[in-house]
Fold this sequence. Notes:
The protein is mainly alpha-helical. The protein has 3 helices and no strands. 73% of the residues lie in helices and 0% in strands. The radius of gyration is 21 Å and the shape is elongated.
Amino acid sequence: MTAILEIRPELKAQLDCLAMETHRSESELVNEALESYLQRTQLYITRLKQRVAEADAGQFVPDHEMENFFLAHGEPD
């Protein structure tokens, strides 16, 4: 399948450079990047739906685990 996409000039320039440096086609790089993005985004959506279902079911992190988290990572701003 062929698709026509508009790529911002600064991204196109980076794509051209990467294609030349890696001796790969622009299409190969774009397909690889798109596949990676779609996989990451689908995983994020799946996890988000799981978390919402857990919250709807009343499943929350115990207070002591949250306290330990903030002790280790600091309080949110």
